[in-house]
Please model this.
Amino acid sequence: MTPPASRLIEVALPLPLFQTFTYAVDGTLANQVVPGSRVLVPVRSRRAIGICLGDATATVARPRAILDAPDPEPVLSTALLGLCRWIAEYYVVPLGIVMRAVLPAALTGADVPRPAAHMRRTATIARALPSLQERDDLFGRAVRQRALYEALESLGGEADVSHLTTQLGFAGALIHALETKGLIALRVDEVRRDPFSARPRAEATSHVPTAPQREAVAALAAASGGEVFLLRGITGSGKTLVYLEFLKEVVRRRGQSAMVLVPEIALTPQTVDRFRAVFGDLVAVLHSALGDGERYDAWRALAGGEARIVVGARSAIFAPLANLGAIILDEEHETSYKNGEAPRYHARDVAIVRARDEGAVVVLGSATPSLESWHNAERGKFRLLTLPERAGAGRLPQVSVVDLRIGARSPMPDDLPDPFRRVIGEAIEDGLRERMARGEQSILLLNRRGYASFIQCGACGYVATCPNCSISLTYHRTPERLVCHYCRYEEPPAGQCPRCAGRTLRQRGLGTQQVERLLGDRFPRARIARMDVDTTSGKWAHATILDRVARGDVDILLGTQMIAKGLDFPNVTLVGVIDADVGINLPDFRASERSFQLLSQVAGRAGRGPKGGAVVIQTRMPAHHSVRHALTHDYLAFVGEEMPGRAEPPYPPMIRLINVIISGTVEVPTEELAQRVSAWLVDGTARSERARITVLGPAPCPIERIHKRWRWHVVLKSEHAGALGSLARALLERFEVPARHGLRIAVDRDPVSLL
Ligand code: ADP
Ligand code: ZN
Model:
């Protein structure tokens, strides 16, 4: 007999290396291994799951053979494999690292048992034993077997095996004994664990689309594959209805599949509910709180075509949908669409590439589009659709400004005797009182959590800072701790100043905990809900708070930027911004844009119903364009003032950026490495095709130290996307980073923040 023929394949492994590996596949597995298949391979003395990319082009002297090919079908379609390659190339990341982000975790670990993670075994009574005599005969002295049998009876004749073993404590051997006797039958079910199925199903509301909504839907329905639309609709203009009507066309009439991306599922349960109300079980929800097994279930449902609409946050862009007709990105300006670690992809850009390759239409929706998308619309790369008015009974709220410099009657409101008045002026206080008297609701924004922003010594000026990061510790009252908002370091507040030993430590600045207490003191009967990172750590905490607001069980919803997004509560008639200036002065070129977006979005939560609404913004910078144009809901005026500032010196969207971050555990070697990286990059730009790259830096990052790591950066700017990518790739492939002091280089392409 001739041995089965073997062939060589190229495999990507989830390692931080820009190379692929060659393995042999022998005849028995050959048919199963195609591009996109998972393969279990030996790597030195370990085993790892890799992805077959195709036949090997390089020849290797003595290739090792793959150990297994676990799946009958490839886990990555040709299209998704192509998308992975694009991400690897554009974001300058090893392909294996991209695949690890694209596939559910259950598919990429070598040790994850394949089916067990998502199988449910059920035991069912197979033969009824109506009489006592029969029982005595069959069980004799096997009392535990009898107890198990009777437990099953009491559970209605059927139960999960895991319930019987872990909850009720029956040994697995007992279950097998009953099965052998033919008394019970074991069944293995695949279960889809959908946490959203526990939420009450919302009613599908059927509004008659307004004329602008109809026009938008018609334009989308007539579009050809690969086209990108920017849907700019003011807050409350009914963008969701446009999405729903377009998806009815795509999913119901054309039988295609579709994606709906939202910034964060937990913050937008209402949006998810609307899609589920219309499309029911066709919708699979990918939630960041899903366990590996649940995520895998959803992934399989999508791959198998049982679910044809995925709703999820950024990583849902990798859902294994076939025959993709539409990709919708709601609130496209949100920074949460950018992944914070390698691969540092932006879901909006990945969506555009995926749609182009698979012939789908992209809809980017926002009331305040990112300047990048606006620029693309102006250049004709995206088609602009506009919803200029609020739909239904809503009207844009009246926005007024309270100048904290004047209103306080003293230059420093910190000196006012009434602590409530230091924080909340008369306009908001009166507004809250009126709303409560009328049974209406209010939203208050303060984009800073904790109780006080920091603790400072009144005598020597000492500020408590994080030992791991170069930022001050935030004072939290319940429980009483000083907390680092970057690395979560905590310590109890000191009784006296560690520097001068004075008993003069004072709380400075303001956080949501303090506002909550002040409100509670001022309005003892008010039902106040606070929503920030500290109150929403549980899986369903966000949805629980928002459901309470929707039911009318909350008078005042107080929170950080979490409360600014997508909420649609018609009974909210007042929005107050306690300090609009938080964030405006951050050392980042997008600080103004972010502030304008946040103010516009939160203002947009008011006046969504027939009762109308009002917004009051407290600020010390009423003349700042972020504040001024948010007052008049004037996106175009904001862009008109902001865009020229991005031209000289040039910043996105006028040019492209790569942020090269150099970090290490020891200060001086990190700086030295940054100097060398910068010099290397300057040298690299001397070559002709990279001539138009500007190298800025090195400089310490605005946050110099995070998690005990010192951070420096070099910023690369150019109009030429390709040249930027090739320079960054050359750096990562050729520049040798010394293997000491934890030194590292990271490349962040199209960064959303330079902090
Ligand atoms: P956006 O996302 O644009 O801020 P939403 O999609 O949340 O706005 O819609 C705002 C409100 O207007 C919702 O309560 C929605 O039910 C309502 N709405 C949308 N379209 C219509 C319409 N054509 N007629 C009446 N009400 C509508
Ligand atoms: Zn820290």
Notes: The chain is about 30% helix and 20% strand. The two ends are 66 Å apart (CA to CA). Confidence is low (pLDDT under 50) at residues 112-117, 408-412.
